[in-house]
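Project outcomes to date are best conveyed with an example. Our students and postdoctoral researchers have been running inverse folding experiments weekly, and each run begins with a structure described purely in tokens. The record below, which covers 188 residues, was selected by the lab manager from last quarter's runs and is presented without edits.
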């Protein structure tokens, strides 16, 4: 058994539909020592999503106020429509309490955090192949054909950002990717 690293901030990012949410859920279910940040978003809830568990669903006006009051550690507008952000105070409180903090965010947010907290772990989650990424996106059934096309265009740009990260983990399966993540951050 290896020694656990000092509690730190870990960022998980990657292209749309790569399975970030599924891998994060596997980590939530199997590694209770990790504290997961819950993002604020301006989009409507998807079926099964709960306020405060999956996201904090806020209006555009509320989101603007959080930005203006420096309450966001990072935020981004994603797919030219909705905004997502990490509430600064919640992350800081968890780190101060000695928790391993985990953020599942987009590339814009990862870049903002890199500028503010370069000591964080930055993990890029990659698909096994382009065809698998397309299959996963279409298999979700949560976006229209036009939205899928837009997300795939964005995914091409996002995949090119891989070198900005400390390590790349290929998401063959959620359990395998999660295992590689916990090994990387020293929780084994």
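After processing, the design step wrote out the following sequence:
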């Amino acid at each position: 058994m290896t020694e656990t690293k000092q509690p730190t901030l870990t960022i998980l990012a990657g292209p749309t539909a790569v399975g970030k949410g599924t891998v994060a859920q596997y980590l939530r279910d199997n590694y209770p020592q990790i504290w997961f940040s819950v993002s604020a978003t301006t989009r409507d809830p998807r079926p099964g999503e709960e306020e405060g568990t999956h996201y904090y669903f806020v209006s555009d006006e509320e989101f603007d106020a959080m930005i203006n009051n420096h309450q966001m550690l990072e935020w981004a507008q994603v797919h030219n429509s909705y905004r997502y952000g990490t509430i600064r105070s919640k992350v800081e409180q968890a780190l101060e309490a000695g928790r391993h903090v985990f953020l599942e965010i987009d590339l814009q947010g990862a870049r903002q955090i890199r500028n503010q907290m370069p000591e964080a772990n930055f993990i890029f989650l990659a698909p096994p192949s382009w065809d698998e990424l397309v299959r996963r996106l279409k298999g979700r059934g949560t976006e229209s054909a036009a939205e899928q096309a837009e997300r795939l265009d964005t995914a091409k740009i996002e995949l090119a950002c891989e070198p900005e990260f400390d390590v790349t983990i290929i998401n063959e399966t959620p359990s395998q990717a999660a295992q590689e993540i916990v090994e990387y951050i020293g929780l084994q």
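The chain has a mean pLDDT of 90. The chain is about 40% helix and 20% strand. The training component of this project remains on track.
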